[in-house]
Design brief:
It contains eleven helices and two strands, in the order H-H-H-H-H-E-E-H-H-H-H-H-H. With about 270 residues, it is mainly α. Helix content is about 65%, strand content about 5%. The protein has one domain. The longest helix has about 30 residues.
């Protein structure tokens, strides 16, 4: 389960998506997430599905590797679906047992929320899988550059987010090693109720926090030893420049968002409860 989390990992491949400017991927990801919440009808989600499938195919990242990260949110996904399924009232009752009932509106909301959450995780994972942490830092810093006028520490914020993303796979690997070591010593993380499982996690969390603080301290000392002083006056080894492919990607993303808004919200199309 721990190794199934793909957030923060980079998958090297020679694809058009990998070669795009990180600013394009950041903006496209934000617009894609917004489009998932703007889409109202089933046609909007059909367009989102086609767009996501096209990006996955173009990125050359294996679909199994992308969907592997969904295993970590199965519990969150089930809670979201169940809450929307049973707690939302509607006009037509589809199933009723005691105080539990499923309505047309509840079923519709549960399905759409589940699809929305899955697409959101896959889209966000695609950005991190096709972009290195250094490129993410540079792209985020360039996008947030106008905020320097109001004295926002743009470089520090970008650096912190990049380091956090980079440390996710490292800490997950460390967690897996500690868990295997504890299991070899007789620890049991699977059996028992929720409280017993929470207590069993204490021997795992203590060395994990110690390891995280040690790694953070080593990184701070290494940056200080290399005379790191923030982003002012620093030059870039690979400065970011837009190319024709980046502009084409912007146009495609704008067309996608416009299609979701116009077709998904304005074109009348109904299938069953959708």
């Amino acid at each position: 389960m721990i190794r199934d989390i793909t957030l923060g990992q980079y998958y090297p491949a020679k694809s058009v998506i990998h070669q795009l400017d990180p600013r394009v991927k950041l903006v496209a990801t934000m617009l894609y997430i917004i489009s998932l919440f703007v889409a109202k009808g089933i046609l909007g989600y059909v367009i989102a599905t086609i767009f996501l499938a096209f990006v996955i195919r173009t990125s050359k990242v294996p679909f199994k590797f992308i969907t592997k990260g969904l295993k970590a949110i199965v519990m969150l996904l089930m809670i979201t679906v169940v809450f929307n399924l049973f707690l939302i009232d509607g006009d037509v009752v589809l199933w009723h047992f005691g105080f539990l009932k499923i309505t047309d509106k509840g079923l519709r909301t549960a399905i759409l929320m589940g699809v929305r959450l899955i697409y959101l995780i896959i889209g966000s994972s695609l950005m991190t899988l096709t972009t290195t942490p250094n490129d993410l830092t540079d792209g985020m810093e360039r996008l947030l550059n106008p905020l320097k006028a109001v004295h926002v520490p743009v470089h520090e914020i970008s650096m912190m987010m990049s380091i956090a993303l980079r440390f996710i796979p490292i800490l997950l690997e460390e967690t897996d090693k500690i868990m295997k070591a504890q299991i070899a010593r007789g620890a049991d993380f699977e059996s028992g109720n929720i409280i017993q499982r929470a207590k069993a996690m204490i021997p795992l969390l203590v060395p994990l926090f110690i390891s995280a603080f040690r790694r953070a301290n080593d990184l701070a000392m290494a940056m200080e030893a290399r005379c790191y002083r923030g982003g002012d006056g620093r030059t870039k080894m690979k400065p970011l420049h837009y190319t024709g492919v980046d502009r084409t990607a912007y146009v495609l993303v704008i067309f996608y968002v416009a299609a979701v808004v116009i077709i998904g919200r304005c074109v009348p199309f109904h299938v069953w409860i959708f």
